[in-house]
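Review form for a predicted model. The reviewer records the input and the model, then writes brief findings.
Reviewer: anonymous (R2)
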Amino acid sequence: MKKFLLLSLIAFSGTVAAQAAPSESSRAEYITRIESCEAILQEFTGSTANPEIAIPPSVLQSAKAIVIVNQFKGGFFIGIKDGYGTVMVKRADGHWSIPVLVTAGELSFGFQAGANTVNTVMIITNDQTPRMLFKQRFNVGVDAKAVAGPKLAEAEKFNHDMISAPVLIYTKAKGLYAGATVKAGWLERNDKVNFELYNTTYSLPELLYADWVQPIPEVVPLMNLVRKLSP
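Model under review:
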């Protein structure tokens, strides 16, 4: 009987340890998500970016937070099946936070027939809007007004009234014009994936607004890019 209890205790302890330890495969997936978000931001901001989708430097420099989203279409015209993103905020001291992973869904922009994925960059222009993620789910365009942001190709036409909305949306969908109001689905905090990514018990608010967790090497390239775009 004692031997049975001892074996049971060992088995239970092993199960708990397995549950508590981060999965290497899932952590690798989360790192891939960070890297893909960096590539998306590069597409919208790099020197070779198409002016029809490129974000003007003046818009980037006004950013208080940046959200980069990669989503997978489930329908022909509309309908997002699944997605993820990263959010970074510029803190009160002017330093950018580490990137924090979030879940994203139900996003649709104009005509996107044939596209399997939808890549989006959201420039948030105030300090209050990112904190809406504290309540778990943030409905873009409902909880905070969202508009299509002016593109680099339109730089001579837009004025600062166009970038006064809390959320400026940039995507590759056709038919969106600067200043058009957009309902852009939802973003949701996902503390579980960040626990594994950063090997921490701190949740989204602490990761964004405190410096208690140091960046891991894999997120540094994205951080450096954001710092360069919006110092």
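Findings: Strands lie at 65-73, 80-89, 100-105, 117-124, 137-139, 146-148, 167-171, 186-189.
Further findings: Residues 1-22 have pLDDT under 50 and may be disordered.
Recommendation: see findings above.
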